[in-house]
Amino acid sequence: MNIQDNGSEFVTQSDVSNDIQHTPRWLLVLIGTTTLLLVVGIVIGIFAFRTALRPGQQQRVIQMLPFMESLLPTNPGAGLALPTPLATYATGVSPAQLLTPMYATETPEATVVLASPASPVLQYVQSTEPSPTFASAQTQVPTPTLPPPPITLEPTSSTPSTAYLTGFRYVTQTWNNCGPATITMALSYFGWQEEMEFAASILKPDDEDKNVTSIEMTAFVNDQSGVRALWRMGGTQDLLKSFLANGLPVVIAIGFAPEGYDWLGHYRLLVGYDDAQGVFFAYDSYLGNGDNGNGITVPYGELDADWRQFNRKFIVLYRPGEEIRLRNLLGELVEPARAAELALERAQEETRVTPQDGFAWFNAGTALVALGRYDEAALAYDQSRRFNLPWRMLWYQFGPFEAYFNVGRYSDLEALVTTNLINGGQYIEETYYWQGQLYITQGQSSAAADAFERSLRINPNFVAAQDALSSLTGS
């Protein structure tokens, strides 16, 4: 007979068997059933967590139950580089020629029209017909509702060694909401009282939308706030300092890799700078506003390294009536075409120094797309895709889609659309927009309409998809 030592007394195996035999049958059934239901419930819960919940909902569960993060499904596209070009295309231009400082082709002449005081917005008028393939939001400017500032600063003749703006309200972002949070913080400088949720409801009606573009952010300010905003690529740190020294807050788009995450796109609000320390002060919706509330410090070199990953794109906010002042500060960048040319020159310079710099090649492509030079843009994007750009790159920047579409490289376009769809880009309206355009080239009108409708389900305010669907259906 087996004997088990229970410490203070001896329990025989037969005693245990007798106890089980004398346990009421209903209790054994209850225990067994409860255990089975618990196991089934856990299995169903894990399955639902992995397959039924959307990413934002999964993150809310993880906030309550951190161990659930280990049960997240594997993203098949995570960590993968963007697909390399499918073939070599003859464009009449070599990559080496694209790096030539004086290399240029004729671009459409452009003029800058300063709107009347009743509608104070800088507008860009192009002398040729715009591309019919991609539309940006057209906005109407409401009557300003915010009170005028008590003091109007004049542009400084030289940028001081330090400047700092106060009066911002810090906002911590929620899931996928760095754009709405950052633009809300920027507007608070002008007395804006709305919360982040208001901006999010307009900028990204679907919580899972991975990206809000600078075009959308600028349109939101001009449509909703009574404040004015303008965006450009190809900025410089001196220009950022000039804005801040003249009382104009500025938002920049950056590459961002917080602890525990792969590379992401991010927005950051700049509120000041100090040449003696060599830093900008920033309100960051994810990292905070510093120990003393004056902003986190970002060294000049670090800021530029992150900023250039988005072609040094910025959004500057200003009050109605400050257009002339802003124009003086912008200088050559007042013209979008010239801003693109300067961005191209900077990208060429960086690529000559480091020929395997994928970001520099990508920036060159983006500038060339803005100039309507699609053949050259496609070549620059070809080069960029050979140098291991972040796998999330096309969540935020869509120039390659536009370039390959306009030069008829539909296989490359399809490869990029497919890549986005398997790595999280199914929550980005632009992914489906370009999928719809691809279907049109294949004569699949029904599939194209479905793609445009899926784009609009993510963001009903996406003008390009609205126009494409209307053209397709005639409604």
Q: By helix and strand content, what is the structural category?
A: alpha+beta
Task: Count every helix, treating DSSP H or I runs of 4 or more residues as helices.
Answer: 18
- The Cα radius of gyration reads 28 Å
Tally of strands:
11
Mean residue pLDDT: 80
CATH topology group of the domain at 131-334: Cathepsin B, Chain A
Q: Estimate the helix proportion, in percent.
A: 40-55%
Query: How does the major sheet shape up?
Result: 7 strands, antiparallel
CATH second-level architecture of the domain at 131-334: Alpha-Beta Complex
**Low-pLDDT runs:** 1-9, 102-156
Instruction: Classify the beta-strand content into a percent band.
Output: 5-15%
CATH class of the domain at 131-334: Alpha Beta
**What string gives the helices and strands in order?**
EEHHHHEEEHHHEHEEEEHEHHHHHHHHH
- The best one-word shape is globular
End-to-end distance, in Å?
87 Å
Short characterization:
With 475 residues, this protein is α+β, with helices and mostly antiparallel strands. It has helices spanning 13-22, 25-51, 55-64, 95-98, 178-188, 196-203, 214-224, 237-245, 300-307, 323-330, 336-353, 358-370, 374-384, 399-406, 410-422, 429-441, 445-458, 463-473; strands spanning 3-5, 10-12, 110-114, 122-126, 162-164, 228-232, 250-256, 264-274, 279-283, 296-299, 314-318.
Notes on the structure:
This protein has 475 residues and is of the alpha+beta class. Among the domains are: 14-71; 131-334, Alpha-Beta Complex (Cathepsin B, Chain A). The protein is 44% helix and 12% strand. It is built from 18 helices and eleven strands. The strands form three sheets. Strands 5, 6, 7, 8, 9, 10 and 11 form a seven-stranded antiparallel beta sheet that branches. The protein has a two-stranded antiparallel sheet with strand order 1-2. Strands 3-4 form a two-stranded antiparallel ribbon. α16 (429-441) packs antiparallel against α17 (445-458). The model is unreliable at 1-9 and 102-156 (pLDDT under 50).
